[in-house]
Design brief:
Pfam families: SnoaL_2 (PF12680). By secondary structure, the protein is an alpha+beta fold. The protein has a single domain, classed as Nuclear Transport Factor 2, Chain: A (Roll). Helix content is about 35%, strand content about 35%. A six-stranded mixed β-sheet has the order 2-1-6-5-4-3. The radius of gyration is 13 Å and the shape is globular.
Length: about 120
């Protein structure tokens, strides 16, 4: 079975291709994705809709700065090509992401990508 760090690397590759099908298959059926700036999203189908909306709003690229692993957790500091940065925490059980937490500045992101709030 793949480690949390290996799953995170697959996630980054799929995210950077905006490959929603590969992305959502990395999540457990009842996974939770909670970006600090937004309400938690629960369930693979709802997470899929979240990614569809996000990729429709901006061309996002995740460049890992640091990736750490601690047991079933993978932690990533990231930046995008425009210098926007954040941090993500991914808990992996049985080869699937069960919990994702992300920290980033929503207001700065919307301004940078000219997305209305």
């Amino acid at each position: 079975m793949m480690s949390a760090k290996e799953i995170l690397k697959l996630w980054v590759e799929a995210f950077n291709r905006a490959d929603i099908e590969v992305l959502i298959n990395l999540y457990a059926e009842n996974a939770i994705n909670h970006q600090v700036a937004n309400a938690p999203v629960e369930g693979r189908n709802v997470i899929k809709k979240m990614f569809e909306a996000e990729f429709a709003n901006a061309e996002m690229v995740c460049k890992p700065i640091n990736i750490f692993e601690d047991g079933d957790w993978a932690i990533m500091e990231w930046q995008d090509p425009k210098g926007f940065s954040g941090c993500g925490f991914f808990q992996v059980k049985e080869g699937k992401i069960i919990l994702q937490r992300g920290y980033w500045d929503k207001l700065s992101f919307h301004k940078l990508y000219e997305i209305p709030l």
